[in-house]
Amino acid sequence: MKKKNPSMNSSASDHHHYKKHAPTSTRYLRVLGYPYVIWMVIFIIVPLLLVLIYSFTKGDIHNLFSLEFSADGYLRVLEPMYLKVIMNSFWLALISTFFCLILGYPVAMIIANTNPKYRSILLTFLLVPMWMNFLLRTYAWMSILSPNGILNRFLEWIGLPRLEIMPGQTAVLLGMIYNFLPFMILPIYTVLSKIDKNLLEASSDLGGNKFVTFIKVIFPLSIPGVVSGITMVFMPAVSTFVISGLLGGDKTPLIGDLIEQQFMTNRNWHFGSSLSIILMVMILISMAIMSRIERNNDREEGRTS
Amino acid sequence: MKKRLLVLLVLLAAIVVAMPISGCSSNKVVLNVFNWGEYMDETLIDQFEKETGISVNYKLYETNEALLSKMEAGGSSYDVVFPSDYAISEMIKRDMLLPIDFNNVPNFKYVDERCKNREYDPENKYSVPYFWGTVGILYNKEMVDDPVDSWDILWNEKYAGKILMKKDVRDTMGVALKKLGFSVNSTNDSELQLAKQLLLDQKPLVNGYYGDQIKDMISNGDAALGVTYSGDFMDLYWDESVDFSYVGFGVPKEGTNLWFDAMVIPKSCRYKKEAEMFINFMMDPDVAYQNSNAVGYTSPNTEAIKRMREEYPEVFELPAYWPDDDVLSKSEVYVDLGDYKTIYNDIFTQIRVE
Amino acid sequence: MKKTAVRIYMGLIYIFLYAPIILLIVFSFNKSKSRGQWGGFTFDWYLEVFKDRQIKEALFYTILVAVLATVISTIVGTIAAIGIHNFKRFPKAFSLNVNNLPVLNPDIVTGVSLMTLFISTSIPLGFGTMLIAHIVFCIPYVILAVLPKLKQLNRHLAEAAMDLGATPWVALRKVILPEITPGIISGALLAFTLSIDDFVISFFTAGTEATNLSILIYSMAKRGVKPSINALSTMLFIVVVTLLLIVNKKSEKGEELYL
């Protein structure tokens, strides 16, 4: 552990009377992180290395030493058919993340501005639907969106034209927004709720109206929450599989569908691993972009990491 | 207040962790039985446990491929599994099964001769049939006015957007191959390419590739025609709360897939004798009858069929329950495709991606 | 005017969220197994839930794993988050990126990778491996929920406390923890939500010895999902909602729980 920098001790002289080298920096808390780092190596890094190995080899998966090098998996991914699937998945995930943000941000703001008495109820009831089984909820959406489903029967009843959206991309999009919306709202709310009300007062004192206050004060301060929310929505959205199968009639499979098939149906572990690695790499790149945005934001605010 | 809650939670967690651990140390025989969902009358399991004192750990899987995937991955032991024909065929090829000692399964004598020694287990060494049926076209009579007796109707533009295909490699490829007059087990590249083209041509007319949602969509009027197992039709037929007489099932004249699900004993089995007892129990005439009634599919047990004829004679008029010999002669059983599996899988993926 | 607009918007959002749930509940009373047709009203499926051994076992494991995984990952995750927050720049970036991997990876990759780990080290698949897997994917979410709070925390507060004579651990308990509690609770809720509904990861790591509700439902998908599952979900829903209402009533002001 690093030696305490003596210059960081304020009122150094008094302390030295009864507590020698009393730590006054929170750096000591670092040790709390070490055990988890070891856990991560064992349970995150090593397993992924195994998948990486499979992606570059062929042969019996049980016998690691019998594997031979092969780039077949990766070559296949470069076929236009698979590239199309990957692009499609990213595009769909982008749109659904966008809508989650547009729809979810106002919700987070509204809850943050609500009387504290009601906040926890509002928030927990946001999450409760997520506790019902995902497959069942998706089946329920099928009943709602199908040609003779509840939605269309309702529209007919009030005289509006029917919506033929199922199966289709719109239905899949709806399904994704439905499943991921609460994960966008929660982090944004967490950050918004802690914004110092004084800042808002100061802003209006200085002549800013609500709109300006939002753009220049609230939104920038909420960016860490927004980044968190985007992370928690975009990444799973890009790799989802059940939704596109049920609501999309499986006519435009996403990359999640393909990977699931390789492991569960085709039992082609090597190709499945290659697909997974490619997906991971693309996600990591997006992640790097996100953290660059965050770091720029931090720097603007005068924080050092 | 928060602290006390935390302590309580931790205590609760500790108690709860202790429970399963203490339960597992008993030396009783526990059979791991792995089956499809909704495919057995579970009161029979209780009956078996009572009669023999053997505990049964009953788990479910959803596709043959998932089953094979889990068995391949290892790490678990299964005593009795219920795969379909082609899966059994593959398991035998890859030496994943134990031969059954039929001295321990005397009830095998009740099995219909037509169900024995089939293509997937020619010497009938490894399996005992469980249920059988066909693949056919489920249709909504109110939406279809043409006769449903040929696979061609699934390519009929009149029903564009209302046709459902199965999200299953063998079943979808099988339909195309049968329509072209080829074998469902074809390993001929040009035949496969023709089948692929046929399916690609069909794609614009297809509403989607689904699993068990097909029967709901057809009964709901969301679609007109769909490829399903005979058992799916039987599910609707036996449903007493809704009148599904507007739903029909047609077995195409070109012939179709004749499927069998059977009981086998994997190599990872720990209690072979008990597994054989379980299989024998399932083939007991009364048990088979009760099971067949509960699940609704056609049993290979001749005694059970005799009783069905007495209690529900009308069911034998249904092609879904009791296909006639003409259909049977033109139908094929799936066997393992070996290396061609990958080719079939690729074609199926391509069809859905394009 | 603004107030009504706000109320309408929130109302729409909650209707959107709860529409499928309500449908699920309605179908739990459907006599017919079909998901398309109404066959009459019945309570039969509710009775079936108590007789069905599959459901009882799956329910037991689902709740057990969810509770344990939530408790363990919240505790470990909070501690780890505090630690990582104080890392220097590069270890911090590294740790955060690795930590985010289970979040970023498709469930199936996490599930398969963990299964491969267990199999190659000859650890039998079962309750233990499933629990470990759940903890692996829950902790990152806890960390992601706690970190923003730590970032917002004025670091000088803790130092000020220590200047005033507090020991490091007191500073931790009395200054840091209370400030980040909302993050901890968000994290715990997230962890519980994810664990209770997990399918893919559990599927690969549970083997034959263990199961959970999602695995059960998915395995019914090929031959037909029984409405008894709807009945079970409805009962769970009622239990959860009731518990939450009680918890909310008990905490003096809703404020204490979240702020």
Q: How many whole angstroms does the radius of gyration of chain A measure?
A: 25 Å
The count of strands of chain A amounts to: 2
Sum up the overall morphology of chain B in one term.
globular
Distance between the termini of chain A: 19 Å
Mean pLDDT across the residues of chain B is 86
Q: What is the structure about, briefly put?
A:
Chain A has helices spanning 12-18, 34-55, 72-77, 80-112, 116-127, 134-145, 150-157, 169-192, 197-205, 210-239, 242-247, 255-264, 269-300, and strands at 57-58, 68-69. With 305 residues, chain A is mainly alpha-helical.
Write the layout of secondary structure elements.
The complex is a heterotrimer of chains A (305), B (354) and C (259).
Chain A: H1 12-18, H2 34-55, E1 57-58, E2 68-69, H3 72-77, H4 80-112, H5 116-127, H6 134-145, H7 150-157, H8 169-192, H9 197-205, H10 210-239, H11 242-247, H12 255-264, H13 269-300
Antiparallel strand pairs in A: 1-2
Helix pairs in contact in A: 2-13, 4-8, 4-10, 8-10, 9-10, 10-13, 12-13
Chain B: H1 2-23, E1 30-36, H2 42-52, E2 55-61, H3 64-73, E3 80-81, H4 85-93, E4 127-140, E5 163-166, H5 169-179, H6 189-202, E6 206-210, H7 213-220, E7 225-229, H8 230-238, E8 247-250, E9 258-264, H9 272-282, H10 285-295, H11 302-311, H12 325-330, H13 340-353
Parallel strand pairs in B: 1-2, 1-3, 5-6, 5-7
Antiparallel strand pairs in B: 4-7, 4-8, 4-9
Helix pairs in contact in B: 5-6, 6-13, 10-11
Chain C: H1 2-27, H2 44-51, H3 53-85, H4 89-104, H5 107-120, H6 127-152, H7 155-163, H8 168-197, H9 200-205, H10 213-220, H11 227-250, H12 254-258
